[in-house]
Amino acid sequence: MAKVSVRAIPNGPYEISIEGKPVAYLCRCGHSANKPHCDGSHKKIGFTAPEVALTFH
Predict the structure, then answer these.
(1) What is the chain's alpha carbon radius of gyration, rounded to the nearest angstrom?
(2) Average pLDDT of the residues in 18-34
(3) Which of 14, 24, 47, 54 gives 20 to 30 Å between its CA and that of 33?
(4) Are 17 and 5 contacting, i.e. CB atoms less than 8 angstroms apart?
(5) Domain extents for the chain?
(6) What is the CATH number of domain 4-56?
(7) What ranges in 1-57 are assigned the alpha helix state H?
(8) CA-CA distances (angstroms) from residue 49 to 7, 9, 57?
(9) What is the DSSP secondary-structure string of the chain?
(10) What is the pTM of this model?
(11) Cα 25 to Cα 21: distance, rounded to the nearest angstrom
């Protein structure tokens, strides 16, 4: 089974990785015009949130 990781980048999007390789960045600030994908809007609005990481085996 593939190792899947979800990491909330500090002050940024969720990074989804499979076997250590990033495959998607998902919005967590709620302002992306390309939801569910991140478009960098978090930088423009000053979004702040801590880093969190989960790994599934």
Answers:
(1) 12
(2) 97
(3) 54
(4) yes
(5) 4-56
(6) 3.40.5.90
(7) 41-45
(8) 12, 8, 26
(9) ---EEEEE-TTS-EEEEETTEEEEEE--SS--TTTTB--SHHHHHT-----EEEEE-
(10) 0.89
(11) 12
pLDDT surpasses 90 at 48:
yes
Note whether 36 and 24 are within 8 A (CB): no
Residue 5 in tokens:
């990781």
DSSP letter (8 states) at residue 30: S
How big is the chain, counted in residues?
Answer: 57
Question: In the numeric block, which tokens belong to residue 23?
Answer: 């495959």
Average pLDDT, the chain: 95
Contacts of 56 (CB under 8 A, 6+ apart): 3, 4, 5, 6
Q: Would the pLDDT of 49 be above 90?
A: yes
Query: pLDDT at residue 56 above 90?
Result: no
